[in-house]
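Q: What would this chain look like folded?
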Amino acid sequence: MQSQISNLESQIQLKVCGLTKLYQIQDLVAMDVDFLGFIFYEKSPRYALDYLSVKQISKINHKVKVGVFVNETIENILEITEKAKLNYIQLHGDEHENFIYELKQKLSKDVQIIKVIRVGNDISEVKNKLAKILNLESQISNLLFDTDSKAFGGTGKSFDWSMLNELEIPLPYFLSGGISEDNFQQLTSLKQKPIAFDINSKFEIEAGNKDIEKIKNFITQIKSRKGTS
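A: My prediction, written as C-alpha cells:
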C-alpha cells in the first residue's frame, strides 16, 4: 500500500473525510475516490458511529479506508481498526512519540499511520512539531497538514499554504483545511506537492452530508489541471 501511494506523488489524489451516509459512500466508491475518511472522535458532528456501525464500515469495499482518531486510547484504536477493516489510522490529536511507536508495534503490518500536523501562524512552532516527527519516520507513512483549531479540524478554514515552502517535509503528505474549488489552484506554487487533497466541510450541504455533485466537479477540475501535480 505504501509503495503504491508513494509512487503516485505526481498525481494529486483525493480523500473525502467525515463520511456518514452509506449511499453517498457508494457514490464516492463508484467515482473512484482514492481515500474514504471516517471520523472516530465523539465530539465531532461527523462522528461515524453516530450514523454507521463498525460492521457497516467493514463491508464497504474500497481500496483505502482511513480512520481519524483524536487522543484516543491504543486499545480503542486497535479494536475499531480491526472491526471496521481500516487501512490507515489518522492521528489528529496530541499523540506523543511513545504512543505512536507503541501503536505501530501493535497494529497489523498492513495498516499505515498518518500523523497530522496542525498549522497556525507561527512557523517556528510548525518546525518544532515536524522535528519531533523526524524521530518517527519509520513508524509513520504520511503526514497531513491541517489548520490548527480547538475543534481538531473540520473548520473550513485554510492556513497560509506558502508556509509549507519553508519546511523540509520528510514524508509524502496530505493537505487539508478549507480546500475548495476556488482556492486549490493556489497550490501550484508549492515546492513539494501533496500526494492528496483532504476535503471535508467545503463540500458539504451540512455536517456529514456531502455534496456529491460538487465533489464530482472537483475531481474533474483536479484531472484537468495537470499543473497542480
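The CA atoms of residues 83 and 229 lie 35 Å apart.
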